[in-house]
Design brief:
The chain is mainly α. The chain is 54% helix and 0% strand.
Length: 81
């Protein structure tokens, strides 16, 4: 990759994609008796967002390193030859 801006942009895009993939894992709905007034019945009981953010960051780092390797070795290229 040519510069830090490109590397950061690729990391951010991969991070958001992986976050949306990991959001549904481990979600349990709130039980009817545990609802507070005004609470959406379909809202998750314990969304565990910090765990999902950590998992997303680790997976993204691994994917980014793989992308960087493939880009630097020339196995993939986004420039016309």
């Amino acid at each position: 990759m040519d510069n830090i801006v490109t590397a950061t942009a690729v990391f951010v895009v991969i991070w958001w994609l992986v976050l949306f993939i990991t959001l549904p894992f481990g979600v349990k709905r709130t039980e009817e008796g545990d609802l507070e007034p005004g609470q959406e019945p379909g809202a998750p009981a314990k969304p565990m967002m910090w765990r999902k953010i950590a998992v997303t960051t680790v997976i993204t780092a691994a994917l980014w390193v793989l992308f960087y390797y493939l880009s630097e070795t020339g196995l993939i290229s986004f420039r016309p030859e």
